[in-house]
Specification:
Elements: E1 2-3, H1 7-11, H2 13-21, H3 27-34, H4 42-61, H5 73-79, H6 89-111, H7 117-120, H8 130-137, H9 152-182, E2 191-193, E3 196-202, E4 211-216, E5 222-227, H10 228-259, H11 263-288, E6 295-296, E7 302-307, H12 310-318, E8 326-330, E9 336-340, H13 347-362, E10 374-375, E11 380-384, H14 397-411, E12 416-420, H15 429-445, E13 449-453, H16 457-465, E14 469-477, E15 482-489, H17 497-504, H18 508-517, H19 520-602, H20 607-624, E16 645-648, E17 654-661, E18 664-669, E19 672-677, E20 681-684, H21 691-707, E21 711-713, H22 719-736, E22 740-744, H23 751-760, E23 768-771, E24 781-785
Parallel strand pairs: 1-11, 6-10, 9-13, 9-14, 11-12, 12-13, 21-22
Antiparallel strand pairs: 2-3, 3-5, 4-5, 7-8, 7-10, 14-15, 16-17, 16-20, 17-18, 18-19, 22-24, 23-24
EC number: 3.1.-.-, 3.6.4.-
Keywords: ATP-binding, Coiled coil, DNA-binding, Endonuclease, Hydrolase, Nuclease, Nucleotide-binding, RNA-binding, rRNA-binding
Protein name: Endonuclease MutS2
């Protein structure tokens, strides 16, 4: 239920229906759109929404569903219910075209059985009765005319007419030629008068030729005569034409009688055509306003994410502008939003957006919101919008408002959505404010849901203290002195009356006089609100900067921890190898010393022999001693290529080359990716790389490539957050050698799309970016080619 009756008009729902009707192909569909109204059954609303969503999916992603002919076959079926009645050739042709459309649609969905379950429910298991089409096609041709061979009798009559007309034409041509030779005819050729072929004869010669005069010229100098010789032939043609008409009526009557048993089926086909036209129009309108299906729940609540007023969206779209999306939440804890802020700041549009979208959803229409939005069901929608003063009812503007408030207080409940624009206006603010507060208090006790716009400070104070009420404001840029049309929950907004007056150019002395006339308390409240908004904006900007820095710190800490782990693992391997080598050297040295001593003993300490053995010992020890580390020899840059193993300068760190760019190489060191100068790396063989590192790296690369998805969804993220995620994602893709990526950012107002594409242009590795195909998301998805 919507109260008052004109509330739907003021919210724009009537205009929505007119726009949907413009997409209908038939009068039946337009009539069905005209009967759209708010429903309260969850199952019915859910079914209508899903039908529209499925048809929208067909229009966007599936093969074309050919729908070309919609006629009112219900009236034609009702016509032949009565015995003896018949359908004309044109009417039978309409039935034929409509049934061809019906059967084409049924076949389309039979081929896709199970894919569109809610649309399939429209058919109600209707059979394809081809006998009806065959019967009509046997009588009516593709142009909607009766076939010459529709019956043997009609074929005989048609042949007789053609023969008689041919003989009459030959005879008239002969007589006309003789009359011309005799000089009896007037200027001109043979002509038709009263359906008869006549010769133009000069009036003075009309007695020279026998025949019937059908007409004469305006001057009386020419008469149009049907020669006596062809009179009988023309009569025969006329008689045959009467016979033909009687035969056609007989054939049409017989065909109509043959179709009479199928009247119930024809009515079902009519119902399918009507419903299909209706759903198709709703789906086309959903595409026009970029609508989605929200999450539908039974509780009286709503959570609109990136909602747009459909009529405002279409108007701004024509002008090349975009709508600032609305985000608002109403639930059991936050039942009523008291919306304040400057004039022309978007308060009324925000409230009307809530009301219109709620009615549209409960009427089974998709709405322009993010598909993550949640919309519940309300039994009643009460709206007080605009001026309803009435001379006939002796109601002033304020009296009309009070009449509605009385109805609201008496009839509202927990499942009522109340929308009040400029609450309390129309009378002395000193009294209007308290009355509005008392009404709001009474409505709040009934746990209604709603949105209320106001400029009254007492309502802002009341909303701040009362349970279930929440202040909200439309953000205003107090530096540029212009509204931003963004809804901010949690705090009231200033009306910016003096600031706007100053911007418009009202004399300063007038503004100062006005400031002196308002109360000190009110002035302090308004100034406090302005200062609060300015401070909050600064805090928000600082918070964003701090969050950005914190994310970078977290990344650096994570990378540092990975590097430390990797170095710790390498250190153990190096020490282990060094210990093995040292043990081997010691073992060989011991053997050499023992052999030398043994030989000295055998030589009985011969001086020369002993000296020679000592020299040999010294030489062998020098060979087996730990050699001094050679100077670092950087690899020849022309020899380096992707996949080579290298060692870093002044380090035992080993990595594999992922890519080479100019003077830099991109290394994979465990999980870490690093960019270093070419001269800082030395190429090594794969044998010099510890097996543990090779196995670990191979496993990590394989796992990383297997787990990496060349698609990222950044919808719902702030600009900085989205760019941060894309930066990490792009780096990983470059490391793994992917040639293209897909970034899903949504359409919205195009702000995030522009920000992302501008950022991608800074990467030299990005070859080009382009939109996804229009059928699969269009400019809501960006393809990046590397």
């Amino acid at each position: 239920m919507i109260y008052p009756r004109n509330a739907a008009d003021k919210l724009g729902f009537t205009e929505i229906k007119l726009l949907i009707q413009s997409h209908c192909l038939s009068d039946m569909g337009r009539q069905m759109v005209d009967r759209i109204q708010m429903m309260t059954s969850f199952d019915q609303i859910n079914k209508f929404l899903r039908q529209t969503k499925e048809f929208k999916d067909i229009l966007e992603n599936d093969a074309t569903l050919h729908i070309s002919h919609f006629f009112d076959i219900k009236s034609l079926a009702e016509k032949i219910r009565v015995e003896g009645t018949f359908l004309t050739e044109a009417e039978l042709h309409q039935v034929l075209l409509s049934l061809q459309t019906v059967f084409s649609v049924i076949n389309y969905f039979n081929e896709r059985e199970g894919r569109y379950p809610n649309l399939e429910g429209l058919f109600e298991h209707l059979p394809i009765e081809k006998k009806i089409i065959k019967s009509i096609e046997a009588v009516i041709d593709e142009k909607g005319k009766i076939r010459a061979n529709a019956s043997p009798e009609l074929q005989t009559i048609t042949a007789g007419i053609a023969k008689a007309e041919s003989e009459a034409r030959k005879k008239v041509d002969q007589i006309f030629k003789n009359a011309q030779n005799s000089g009896w005819t007037a200027d001109g050729n043979l002509t038709i008068r009263d359906g008869r072929l006549c010769i133009p004869i000069l009036s003075e010669n009309k007695r020279k030729l026998k025949g019937f005069i059908h007409d004469e010229s305006a001057s009386g100098q020419t008469v149009f005569m049907e020669p006596e010789e062809v009179f009988q032939l023309n009569n025969l043609v006329r008689d045959l034409e009467f016979d033909k008409r009687r035969e056609i009526i007989r054939i049409l009557t017989a065909l109509s009688s043959e179709l009479r048993p199928y009247v119930p089926l024809l009515l079902s086909y009519h119902g399918l055509l009507t419903k299909l036209d209706f759903v198709r129009a709703k789906a086309l309108f959903a595409l026009q306003i970029e609508a989605e299906m929200p999450v539908l729940v039974q509780d009286p609540q709503l959570n609109l994410v990136n909602a747009r007023h459909p009529l405002l969206f279409l108007n701004l779209k024509k002008e090349g502008s975009t709508v600032v999306p609305l985000n608002i939440k109403i639930d059991e804890q936050q039942r009523v939003v008291v919306l304040s802020g400057p004039n022309a700041g978007g308060k009324s549009v925000a409230m009307k957006t809530v009301g219109l979208l709620q009615i549209m959803v409960q009427a089974g229409l998709l709405v322009p919101v993010d598909e993550s939005s949640t919309i519940g069901l309300f039994k009643q929608i009460f709206a007080d919008i605009g001026d309803d003063q009435s001379i006939e009812s002796d109601l002033s503007t304020y009296s009309a408002h009070l009449s509605k408030m009385k109805y609201f207080v008496e009839n509202a409940g927990g499942k009522t959505l109340v929308l009040i624009d400029e609450f309390g206006t129309g009378t002395d603010p000193q009294f209007g404010g308290p009355i509005a507060e008392a009404v709001l208090e009474a409505l709040n006790r009934k746990h209604i849901r709603g949105v209320v716009t106001t400029h009254y400070s007492n309502l802002k104070v009341f909303a701040n203290a009362a349970e279930g009420l929440e202040n909200a404001s439309m953000i205003f840029d107090n530096l540029k002195m212009q509204p931003l049309y963004i809804l901010e929950m949690g705090k009231p907004g200033s009306s910016y009356a003096f600031e706007i007056a100053q911007k418009i150019g009202l004399p300063q002395n007038v503004i100062n006089a006005a400031k002196n006339k308002i109360g000190v308390h009110q002035k302090k409240v308004d100034t406090l609100l302005i200062d609060l908004e300015r401070d909050k904006k600064e805090i928000l900007e600082k918070k964003i900067a701090v969050e950005k820095q914190q994310r970078r710190v977290n990344v650096l800490l994570e990378e540092n921890e990975r590097l430390k782990t990797y170095l710790d693992e390498n250190k153990k391997l190096i020490l282990k190898d060094a210990k093995k080598e040292a043990q081997s050297i010691i073992l060989n040295a011991n053997k050499l010393v023992e052999n030398t001593i043994s030989e000295i003993r055998e030589s009985k300490a011969d001086k020369e022999k002993t000296q020679k053995l000592r020299q040999n010992l010294q030489q062998e020890l020098q060979k087996n001693s730990v050699k001094e580390k050679p100077a670092f020899a950087p690899a020849n840059t022309s020899e380096l290529k992707a996949g080579d193993w290298v060692k870093l300068e002044d380090s035992e760190t080993v990595g594999q080359i992922m890519d080479i760019t100019k003077d830099n190489v991109i290394l994979a060191i465990g999980d870490l990716r690093s960019v270093v100068k070419r001269k800082r790396v030395q190429k090594i063989t794969s044998k010099e790389v510890p097996k543990e590192i090779r196995r670990s790296y191979s496993s990590q690369v394989t796992d990383a490539i297997a787990q990496f998805n060349p698609e990222i969804d950044v919808r719902g993220l702030r600009g900085e957050e989205a760019l941060f995620e894309i930066e990490k994602y792009l780096d990983r893709a470059l490391m793994m050698g992917f040639s293209n990526l897909k970034i899903i950012h949504g359409k919205g107002d195009g702000i995030l799309r522009k920000l992302i594409r501008d950022y991608l242009r800074k990467y030299s590795q990005v070859n080009r970016v382009e939109d996804e195909h229009a059928d699969r998301g269009g400019d809501g998805i960006t393809y990046v080619y590397l």
